[in-house]
Each structure stands twice: as structure tokens, then as C-alpha cells.
Amino acid sequence: MSVVTNTTTIGAIEAPSRRNTELALLAFAVAIPVFAYLNVGLAIDGKVPPGMLGYGAGLTLLAGVAHLVVRKFAPYADPLLLPLGTLLNGLGLVLIWRLDQSPRLIQRATSAYGSFSPDAPKQMLYSAIGIAMFVGVLLVLKDHRVLQRYTYISMVAALVLLLLPLVPGLGSDVFGAKIWINVAGFSIQPGEFAKLVLAVFFSGYLMVKRDALALASRRFMGLYLPRGRDLGPIVTIWAVSLLILVFENDLGTSLLFFGMFVIMLYVATERTSWIVIGLLMSAGGAVVVGSTASHVQSRVAAWLDPFGCLKTAPEGSNMANACDQMTQVLMSFGSGGILGTGLGQGNSDLIGFAANSDFIFATVGEELGLAGVMVFLLLYGLIIERGVRTALAARDPFGKLLAMGLSGAFALQVFVVAGGVMGLIPLTGMTMPFLAYGGSSVIANWALIGVLIRISDTARRPAPSPAPNPDAEMTQVVRP
């Protein structure tokens, strides 16, 4: 007796896409800012703000478009990145609108410029452009590995972006920092986009050179010191960072670029010596420039003793402005306490022109208290954690380095901004990602989220089923 059985090849188990989870989280990410908007309106005027419906509809539309694009073109992407970005962006819009309602801020702007223009509608427009950039990244960038082809082109593009603020007639000097360019009436900060392009260059370069950089010539005090010729890349990046600091007076961008490169260098080589060398070089450069550049000296003085330098600094000078802002920021955090004064019931608008950009985190500290500050830091930490998880899950070394570089740059920016506002380090003039007013920042950070989502989609996508074996299609089993 013979029995003939058919056997087929078992395909790969279909991995869950988690898009429904993302949709549910997006509902909360939209509802929380809308509730915060209502809370601010009730606190200021005692009634429902008239623009709440339009704000809620606009934020829902932006989140819905982004979700549909992810569902279609990146179905296996991380489900947390988009909701976290939407929540932070939405809360940032609420905080900016809250500061727009301040009578003191309106009076100050009217006396200085003759009129007052609210920033919240412009930030909503920038957010829409940022979502469009996010969508464009997912539509154009089908595979992140394509970026590896443009390693050295990325280096040239990054240098051009960094040098643009130094071009006469194009760059502008704002309170001592030359980090802006004016194009068709709009102010753009090229450094925000340069960090994305530099991450591509660092990833491509380190993927090729990581074996040479990992070699050690000798061991000294427990550290493996690299060979002399392998110090070239880090010395070059250190010199570029110093040039940025010297000519543009931009401490934040200098720290961001050099720190991102050292992080990626450590990930590529697994040598602790690179971290130590990077910290020593960064500290040495900061000491030299801090003792010669007046703009950096003002911020260091405001960091060390803001109340003391406010008394001694000449009235109207950069140092007096920096010290005055820092004293207001510290008093805002101090008056917030554990739970804060409540949304719309603080006085952080006294900080001045940068209340909704450089120092918007002070509004969080005053009106939401220490609890609110920890919540925001947790949200930023979740974005960083998902980026690192994406790097660990990536199947190619270029994707690993790129995801780690972008996550590291995001983490460094959050650290230098939050640390500067809270008095941990000197102020840097950078903007809090998604939260602060600024078109360049929100657009660049949405592009960063788009690249991370593309890498995570590739990393989480299930492997294709193996091709069927014709010999295994039909097996004859003979039983006695």
C-alpha cells in the first residue's frame, strides 16, 4: 500500500505591522494638546478659546496624513516615533500660543517694532511644511542604503550649509551669533539641516574606515591609543567645530557636530579611548574660545553667576541681556515648584524676545512644574530610545550608524538646550526640538523622524519567504 502526500515549504511568519497601535497612540497625541489648548483658554479668559476647533482639526489633519503615508509606504515602521513627534509638536504649538496671549509680550513687541505678529499661526505653517518634509522623505527615500552613495557629496553639502551664514548680504548677526540666513523674507538656520547631512557623511565614512580606526598602537593608563595617522578624521572635525565656534559664535552647533561624530566613532570602533580623546579636545577648544570670544564669555558669565553679572554688566550689552534672561529663567523654574502654577498662569513671558524659542522650556518648568519637565524629558527619551532600538535592529552597518548618529544628535540637542536653560551648562542658543518656535528646527526634526522611520521599516520588515524547492513539492511515502 502506498500513500502519496503533498508537502509545501513553510513561508516566513508575517510580522505585525503595528499600524493600528500607531493610530490609537496618535489619537491620544492629538487629544492631549487640544485639551491643553482648552486649559490655556479657560485660564486666561475664562472661556473656550475660539480657535480650538481649527487647531484641533489642523493637528488631526496633519497627523492623519502622516499616518496614512506611513501605513502605505512604511508599514513595518516603529509605531511610537510618529505619535511622539506629533505630541511634542502639538504641545509646542499650545505653549507658543499661550505666550502670544501675554499682554506684556504684546506691549513689548508693539513698542519695539510698532506692531505685534503672533507666532503660533506661523509655527502651525512650519509644522505643516515639516509634515510635508516627513512625507517627502518616505516617498523619495525607498531604501536608506541609497544615501551611502552620496557620502562625500554629503560632506560638501554640509560644509556649504555651515558656511552660508558667513556670506556677506546673506547671513545675519542676531545677538552675536551668526547662524541665520535671510531668504525671501524668511530666516533659515542652515545648521539644523547640516546635522542630517553630516550624519550621512559620518555613517558612510566610518563604515569604510572603522577597521583602521579600531586599530591601536599602544596601551596607556588602561586606554588603547589610536595610531597617529588615524587621528586625522577626529582632528579635522574638531578643527571644523572650532571654526564654527570662532566665526559664527555658535557654541551649540559646535558641541552638537563634534559630539555626534565622537558618538558615532565610538559605536563604529567600540574604543573607549575615542570618547576620552573627544572629551579632552572638546574641553580644550571650549576653554580657548571661551576666553577669547566675547559672545561666549557673556554666556559663561550668565551661567556662573547670573545675579552677580546683572549688577556689574554695562546696561544694554550682550552680557547684561544674557544675565537678565538667565535670572528670569531661574526664577521661573523656582516659582513652578513640583506641579507648576498651571497652564496660562505663569510669568515666563518676562524673559523677553526668546521666551517662545530658546527659553520655552522655562514655561514648561513654571506652569507644569518639575512633574511637567520630567514628562517632557521622558517623551524626548522615548524618541531617543526608539532610535537606538532601530539602530540595534538594522541589518546593515550603514543603517546602524545612521540611526545611531541621528539619535545621538537629537539627544545632544535636547541635553544642551535643557541643560543650558536649567543652568547645568552655559546657554547655547539652540531650540528645543518640536517644542520651540522656529521653522528650520521643526522641519529638520520631522525629516529626522522620517529617516528613522524608513530605517526602522527596513529593519522590522520580515524576510521574504524562501523560493520553493521543486524537489520538495511531491514526496512519495511508501508504507508496507
From TrEMBL:
Sequence segments annotated as region (Disordered): 460-480
Membrane topology annotation: Multi-pass membrane protein
One BP annotation, GO: cell division
Subcellular location: Membrane
Organism superkingdom: Bacteria
Keyword list, A-Z: Cell cycle, Cell division, Cell shape, Membrane, Transmembrane, Transmembrane helix
GO cellular component: a single term: cell division site
A single MF term (Gene Ontology): lipid-linked peptidoglycan transporter activity
Transmembrane as UniProt keyword: yes
Membrane-crossing segments per the record: 23-40, 52-69, 81-99, 124-141, 150-167, 179-208, 228-245, 251-268, 275-296, 359-380, 401-428, 434-453
InterPro entries per record: FtsW/RodA (IPR001182)
Protein name per its UniProtKB record: Cell division protein FtsW
Principal location class: membrane
